[in-house]
Amino acid sequence: MKRTAIYIRVSTQEQALEGFSLAAQTQKLKAYCESQDWQVVDIYADEGISAKDTHRPKLQQLLRDIAAGNIDIVLVYKLDRLTRSVSDLYQLLQLFDKYQVGFKSATEIFDTTTAIGRLFITIVAAMAQWERETIGERVAIGMAQKALEGKRVAAAAPFGYTKNGETLAVNPKEAQIVREIFHRYVNGDGIDRITRWLRTTDARGGIWDNHTVSYLLENPVYIGKIRWGYRSAKSAQETILTDGSHEPIVDLATWQAAQHARSRRKRRSPRAGTGKFPFGGLLWCAKCGASMTGQYNRKYRYYRCNKARLKQCDARMVRADLLETAVVDALQEHIQDAISELTIDLDAQRGQPRDAAKVHESLLARKRRLLDAYELGGVTLDELRARLDRLEADLLAITDTRHTSIDAASDPASIERRTRLIRARASDVRAGWQSFTTAQQRELLQQLIGRIEVLGNDVQITFQDVF
């Protein structure tokens, strides 16, 4: 016999407007437990409390009893009695799953003791992720607006400044070091030399590295600007750069000279393994199994087996441009093949039942009326159990029909649109490849490809299972 915790809740407004009392919920849920032959171990009732969060006395007591191992299943009249927040619901369901406690709504299909119920958890997880991302977008919009107003958004002040409310104040001692960094760089010192010099000073406790110096030299905050979105933006156009309310440390001419020097030095011959090599982490030597990395010679970019560098493999280098062309062609063909395999008979789909939702609601209404009839003495307990079993089977069948047709029969037009979109994307891959940044190329490859094995002109591609 399952040890059942009944959770009931009603806010003051709900009780006043709807008459949805705790007593009414209790009667219906007790009747339901009796029909299922479940043992009611306790009733947890939060009266006059909304479901905006989980900070409710009886709900917290229920969670403690679950952790203590005293509960097998939690029963509510409706899902919104437990919570109205998707993220809170997902966290509660995770806790229930941790302690192997089932969750069921007496008047809805939500039941985590069934396969369909577990699918529901997955859907809730996706909705919770969407909710978190929406909140994150709102925060980002607020931060971007502050940046547009010239206010400092970052929590910490950059070297050379101290925080002063929503703006920055110059730190005279550090500002002098910033000016010296720019002076040395513009006059020919490299990043390595400047870093070594900084480590001899007491600035930042002598803790400096090349990345920190490079970032400082490229940061427009030192000419009085506010920059927002630089690290996360996919393109320079998405970065916000506006006049700040703080005092600049470096004059514009010096800063521009430093940027010109940075650009000029970056154009020099790049080191092996750096530059435009989008296959990082995907490319392997088919002869020895070692990874392959990029390098330049005077004319071409190449990929080379890392063991070949050590004279432990005789596989030859592969020209990067030829390999990219072969992979893009194969990628385009793979997408077209996937479309062919996934395209199904839409006419047959249109024959699937369209009224599953109406049938589902009708069955739930019959279930509620049956419980009401039992409370009024209109049916016996045995009859109630038998009829509930039949209703549960019907509900399970119709729910399964609805879920299995989500991607198929429910909306054939959406599949047609999706197929057209995928075909368009496939035709754009080759045309757009050369205009992509290396980061965009790498992102596309990592989404669609798991592994590329190369030996001379032979290229074997293992695609990700994304279609």
From TrEMBL:
InterPro entries according to UniProt: DNA_bind_recomb_sf (IPR038109), DNA_bind_recombinase_dom (IPR011109), Recombinase_CS (IPR006118), Resolv_N (IPR006119), Resolvase-like_N_sf (IPR036162), SSR_resolvase (IPR050639), Zn_ribbon_recom_dom (IPR025827)
SUPFAM superfamilies linked to this entry: Resolvase-like
Cross-referenced Gene3D superfamilies: Putative Large Serine Recombinase, Chain B, Domain 2, Resolvase, N-terminal catalytic domain
Stretches assigned to coiled coil: none
One Pfam short name: Recombinase
Molecular-function GO term, any one: DNA binding
PROSITE patterns: RECOMBINASE_DNA_BIND, RECOMBINASES_1, RECOMBINASES_3
Name of the featured protein: Recombinase family protein
Taxonomic path: Bacteria, Bacillati, Bacillota, Bacilli, Bacillales
